Amino acid sequence: MRVKALAALALSLGLGASSGSAAADVVGSDRGKTERGETSTRGPDLRGETLRGDAARGARLYESRCGGCHSVDANRIGPLHRGVFGRRAGSAAGFDYSPALRASRLNWNEQNLERWLADPERLIPGQAMGYRVEQPQDRADLIAYLRQL
Q1: Minimal CB count within 10 Å: which of 1, 38, 43, 79?
Q2: Which residues contact 41 (CB under 8 A, 6 or more apart)?
Q3: Which residue has the higher pLDDT, 130 or 16?
Q4: Contact present, 14 and 27 (Cβ < 8 Å)
Q5: Is the pLDDT of residue 3 over 50?
Q6: Measured distance CA(91)–CA(89) in Å, rounded
Q7: What pLDDT is recorded for position 34?
Q8: Which residues, including other chains, have CB under 8 Å from residue 14's CB and lie 6 or more apart?
Q9: Looking at the predicted structure, is the pLDDT value of residue 138 above 80?
Q10: What pLDDT was estimated at residue 50?
């Protein structure tokens, strides 16, 4: 157990990730198609490595993990997500954001969404979202989906 905790800490600090691991599929930062022809993006994970995101898988993850609070086209418990890329955090019309998120001056891009999904409280202390996406590949897939909205 202690070894796992130390390994997780090392990875969170950017230490010890090998390019041969499944989570370290190092590629360029461009958009492309998956083997099935689905739109994908390549974006950095928290360790600075680049993962290919699968938008189709991201859509399924969005429905199962995010859909309880969020919608693409309507504010719910969380704000709507259509047009999130390039939007200033805390600015979707009609949603009552936490003061911390409204004051963040953050614009959503791949890097900020990666950090947000991994640990919202670390990125913006005092925000109200109580959910994290633990797996880097899941984050990359969600980001690929959000990018195409």
Answers
A1: 1
A2: 31, 32, 52, 53, 55, 110, 140, 143, 144, 147
A3: 130
A4: no
A5: no
A6: 6
A7: 44
A8: 46, 47, 48
A9: yes
A10: 75
Tell me: pLDDT of 27 over 80. Answer: no
How much is the pTM?
A: 0.70
φ, ψ for residue 99 (rounded to 5)? -55, -35
In the prediction, which pLDDT does 46 show?
Answer: 55
User: Facing residues of 44 across strands?
Assistant: 50
Three-state DSSP at 84 gives: coil
Helix (H, G, I), strand (E, B) or coil at 125: coil
Sequence-separated (6 or more) residues with CB below 8 Å from residue 1? none
Domain 25-148, CATH homologous superfamily name and number: Cytochrome c-like domain (1.10.760.10)
Cβ neighbors of 128 (< 8 A, separation 6 or more) are 97, 98, 100, 101
Show the tokens assigned to 2.
């202690």
Taking the alpha carbons of 8, 115, 25, 17 in that order, is the dihedral positive or negative? negative
- Residue 22: count of CB within 10 angstroms of its CB: 8
If you average pLDDT over residues 15-35, what whole number do you get? Answer: 34
Token pair of 69 as six digits: 């609070």
* Residue among 60, 83, 67, 72 at smallest CA distance from 142: 60
In three-state secondary structure terms, 40 is strand
